[in-house]
Amino acid sequence: MIADVSKSDKIVVEKSTVPVKTAEAIEKILTHNSKGINFQILSNPEFLAEGTAIQDLFNPDRVLIGGRETPEGNKAVQALKDVYAHWVPEDRILTTNLWSAELSKLAANAFLAQRISSVNAMSALCEATGADVTQVSYAVGKDTRIGPKFLNASVGFGGSCFQKDILNLVYICECNGLPEVAEYWKQVIKINDYQKNRFVNRVVSSMFNTVSNKKIAILGFAFKKDTGDTRETPAIDVCKGLLGDKARLSIFDPQVTVDQIKRDLTMKKFDWDHPLHLQPMSPTTVKQVTCVWDAYEATKDAHGICILTEWDEFKNLDFKRIYDNMQKPAFVFDGRNIVNVDQLREIGFIVYSIGKPLDAWLKDMPAVA
């Protein structure tokens, strides 16, 4: 389309996260349809995070521009650099070759996901030994070579980028004859799936090895707070796992619509040979799910609560009121480590918080395999 309408030389900027060498494909298509017009292709991946996109745009860690290392390519890179220079300090505008820019975006997301899977792997060990993952990650993050970000243990990572980009990386590695490297990155996703599976198993085993016909309140469905995005959210797999044992779910999320939740739970998911990646819900199973617009309504008469998104409002709930209106024993399974465990135990809850020392009840009921 660009070739069809272009009447003068053009700089074409690739913004999306794409497989390495996509720019080369665009370049070939444009060149073969050029009609004498010159095209320069630049790779300029965006590093904006949902919930902080405007802030990330105005004050980026870095801007990355990749282009051909030719006089024409360098000129095109400089033209885009001049646009960003209006508000981004020059030392934060990095220039590379085309392939490095494309790969850097995939690598950045893979490294971030890897950190989450690493701390989640440690959380399992912490529970087994009585260590506290919050204390461990704080101590580790104090090392300036590592830093404190992306070291919060949780039920798992979600979002549209991490899994997609890692699978992209895996594919590229396999295509380039690097099966060991591909397997390394695949393990990041496998640990993420393991963490979701482990969470479901903990819920089921703690509640006398069955959640059949028990009401479980799901607080949070988005993959992270301050967004209504549910793409690859851990909540989907956790809910499907609980529904597989015939639990009755009452779901509340401040921003995700009822239609979106039902759509996510009925959609067939890509199977990574994992027990939680179930078939679409049957109409009967759909009846086991209700969506409400209030945390207190969701938790009323519930046997257990699963916190799956770290919404700030969940930290300030009146848990005494919630406890009084729940079935007993009352369970809280904190998939984001946002509640005060000691306070909730004082109220009377049996609390499971990922990577935290287990109370006596949970020790007596080890997670099922």
Task: From the structure above, extract its key features.
alpha/beta, six-stranded parallel sheet, Rossmann fold, about 45% helix
Number of E-state strands:
10
Strand content: 5-15%
The CATH C-level class name of the largest domain: Alpha Beta
Mean pLDDT: 92
Question: Which topology of the largest domain does CATH recognise?
Answer: Rossmann fold
Cα-atom radius of gyration: 24 Å
Uncertain stretches of 5 or more adjacent residues: none
Q: How many strands, what sense, and barrel or not for the largest sheet?
A: 6 strands, parallel
- From the N-terminal CA to the C-terminal CA, the straight-line distance is 54 Å
CATH architecture classification of the largest domain = 3-Layer(aba) Sandwich
How many H/I helices?
A: 16
What is the name of the CATH superfamily of the largest domain?
Answer: NAD(P)-binding Rossmann-like Domain
Arrangement of strands in the largest sheet: 7-6-5-8-9-10
SSE run:
HEHEHEHEHHHHEHEHHEHEHHEHEH
- The geometry reads as elongated
State the secondary-structure class. alpha/beta
Total individual domains:
3
The level of helicity is 40-55%
Pathway: Nucleotide-sugar biosynthesis; UDP-alpha-D-glucuronate biosynthesis; UDP-alpha-D-glucuronate from UDP-alpha-D-glucose: step 1/1
GO molecular function: NAD binding; UDP-glucose 6-dehydrogenase activity
Family: Belongs to the UDP-glucose/GDP-mannose dehydrogenase family.
Keywords: NAD, Oxidoreductase
